Amino acid sequence: QQFVTVEGRAIPIEGERNLLEIIRKAGIELPTFCYHSELSVYGACRLCLVEVAGRGVQGACSTPPEPGLDIKVNTPQLREIRKIAVELLLANHDLSCPSCFKSVDCKLMDVARRVGVTSVRFKPVQEKAPLDFSSPSIIRDPNKCVLCGDCVRMCSEIQGIGAIGFAHRGHQTAVLPAFGKGLGEGECVGCGQCANVCPTGALVPRSEMDEVLTALADPTKTVVAQVAPAVRVGLGECFASPAGDPVMGRMAAALKRLGFDAVYDTTFAADLTVIEEGQEFLTRAAAGEKLPQFTSCCPGWVQFAEQSFPELLPNLSSCRSPQQMFGSLVKEMLPEKQGIARKDLIVVSIMPCTAKKFEARRPEFAVDGSPDVDFVLTTQELARMIDGAGLRFNNLEPESLDMPFGFGTGAGVIFGASGGVTEAVLRFAAEKITGKTLASVDFAEVRGESGLREATLEVGGKTLRLAIVHGLANARAVAEQVVAGNSEYDLIEVMACPGGCIGGAGQPVPKDLADRKRRTKDLYQCDKTFPLHKAQDNMFVTECYDKFLGDVGGHKAHSLLHTHYQS
Ligand code: HC1
Ligand code: SF4
């Protein structure tokens, strides 16, 4: 066994990639801005400096662990270097901290406290730059950027887009969208993963809390909420709820106290999506047309496909996402049922996703300019509204969701994890193909963490070749294969965010990879505890077809539940 000595203690080397990981294993959390285990090493923030005996001061993130190294992490010299580095950042930082969206989990604030900054000895050298409000999903505030490059690497390495990059030199260096445009005017798809890794408030989800609070206070409006599958495994983290804690009941109670007239579940619409998309897949497979079929519920992926792979748009399922199916259906059904005007019904989505804000504003998802989904709040925004109203979330008595749109099956709920849409569609398609009830609803073959997974299944004598992708860089690789004619897949699921919606940028920022794993596990546990596991068993969905929609994939279903793409 080989060792590195960290502050006098021998720490074994067991495949760690750098000294930072060894030091973490020794139980010491060095401050860093620019180190993320899933991104390449940049080594720019100079906070993780350590003293290596015989070699002097080195960056822990960029030094590989070699046997026999003897390192110190907390000498007076290192402390002073770190303090100066943070003071230099703070000299140019816009210190509007109390009003900053990131104030609850700002890494700069945390690091400044940890390195003991009590005053700033330097003067600013940068002029104030205007904020960028051009994206419906993300606000960019260059005055809070610390040039760690995390966002740049996230967008290029994980999302394969490169919508933002470094520009200029010296003290004018800045992170900017390409061609001097606003973030919302270029290639950005609003996934928000850049904001998820930004250590400060330089990139933050765009909030719609004020608009929702205004609607809630308006007595002429009926305001209903739809809650996305993945929110139920993220919201609890904002209130330090234990893992596996079923928060839906308390969330419903909180939403009612905030003034919502009804609380529904996007899972209902995910069940509807399974049926429409599953039927579409079976029709295409029978005709041997427009295969592979790509899923279409992730708005980041849809926009990416429209921008980068117009030739593949016929392969995308024509199904609207569950968020948009929910909006169009509810705005069609509820006004008549409740005797209210469409304009007085306000649909608010609670989503783990920032791209859903953009999706809700797409002009095709509106009737005469009145949107099907009026506002989209992220999980984080909901937590703030609950906190802002003074509600003690963990003390709330759970309440039920409202019917019929508050009922979903396990098939719909697993949409929130990568592989979930595929599994939900398989639970539908397998019964349709074989004409038999499934003995087990679990398709473990399509579950997993890797960003690009493949599975081949034999169903009723048919071979189904599946690919499951998360992260748009992986999606690009698979899409290029399809364009080149080198793909054998029948169905390809794409989610833009790592891990699927559970890792969406509207969720609380995960502390580490374990948070994503835990959310996925909790979501599959929801499936287990739900009374039903197949979309086709959702009796409220069946009733909706019988009384309102007519046939699956029929005329009405098409006009309300399907869409067209734009290249
Ligand atoms: Fe998702 Fe979906 S699963 S896209 O990940 O298809 O956001 O949770 O709501 O619309 O249902 C997100 C989650 C969400 C849609 C569904
Ligand atoms: Fe890139 Fe997504 Fe950030 Fe846009 S929101 S800049 S696509 S990481």
What are the SSEs and their pairings?
Blueprint: E1 3-6, E2 9-12, H1 19-25, E3 49-52, E4 56-59, E5 70-72, H2 76-91, H3 107-114, E6 138-140, H4 150-158, E7 164-167, E8 174-177, H5 193-197, E9 203-205, H6 209-216, E10 222-227, H7 235-238, H8 248-258, E11 262-265, H9 266-287, E12 293-294, H10 299-308, H11 322-338, E13 345-351, H12 355-361, E14 366-367, E15 370-371, E16 375-378, H13 379-388, H14 410-413, H15 420-434, E17 452-459, E18 462-470, H16 472-483, E19 491-495, H17 513-529, H18 539-549, H19 555-561
Parallel strand pairs: 1-5, 10-11, 10-13, 12-19, 13-16, 18-19
Antiparallel strand pairs: 1-2, 3-4, 3-5, 6-9, 7-8, 14-15, 17-18
What can you see in these coordinates?
α9 crosses α11 (322-338) and α9 (266-287) crosses α15 (420-434). The chain has helices at 19-25, 76-91, 107-114, 150-158, 193-197, 209-216, 235-238, 248-258, 266-287, 299-308, 322-338, 355-361, 379-388, 410-413, 420-434, 472-483, 513-529, 539-549, 555-561; strands spanning 3-6, 9-12, 49-52, 56-59, 70-72, 138-140, 164-167, 174-177, 203-205, 222-227, 262-265, 293-294, 345-351, 366-367, 370-371, 375-378, 452-459, 462-470, 491-495. It contains 19 helices and 19 strands. The strands form six sheets. The protein has a five-stranded mixed sheet, with helices on both faces. Strands 11-10-13-16 form a four-stranded parallel sheet, sandwiched between helices. 35% of the residues lie in helices and 14% in strands. With 567 residues, it is an alpha/beta fold. The protein is globular, with a radius of gyration of 25 Å. A hairpin with a 3-residue loop joins β3 (49-52) and β4. It binds 2 iron/2 sulfur/5 carbonyl/2 water inorganic cluster and iron/sulfur cluster. Iron/sulfur cluster is lined by residues 138, 154-155, 159, 161, 163-164, 188-194.
